[in-house]
Amino acid sequence: MILFYTPNSPYARTARIALREWKVLEAAEERLAANREADNPVLEFSPVGRVPTLVHAGLVITEARSVFAYIRNFAGGGNAGEADWKMVAEEGQIAGFLEGIAFWVREKRRTPESRSDVLLKVERDRMMRCLNHLDTLAATAALPDVSQFRGATLASALHLMDAHQFCRDWKNNKALTAWFEQQRDRPSMRETEPQI
User: Which intervals hold domain GST N-terminal (predicted)?
Assistant: First the structure.
């Protein structure tokens, strides 16, 4: 099993967390990819060329959720539960939160004159709505730990947001902060910390 990743991709981080949480790290080789480069080793297996990409038993899996589910299934943890629509709905909310944070990272890398202030405001508004919603879920103990895709995705998003200081006062969401601090202390999170 080969998992292609980049150190700062929150999407690839979810797969790296899965390898550790589901105790299959020894069965996999983590390989660095070179996104947006002509010599990206992922291109040997997939024309998409993004991370995470998992290669195993003749399969090439490229979506973070699918990679996580495959690793979990490989470890004997069962399938991701497509029929659990409450879980699917929560996952969509959390994935949308990460999508906004990832957009913000990319937009902030652009030169100031190339950035869209309108889109940055849209993403900031989305981030604030999501933080309030997630804090409510955390207060009712409705958030899973990082051994589940939703938890790994949320922890990766919060870490990325915090590291880039997109919302300096997000920790006013006390329940969400307490949840994040518990997850951040897990070995799978420490071992996959991005190089920001």
Answer: 1-79
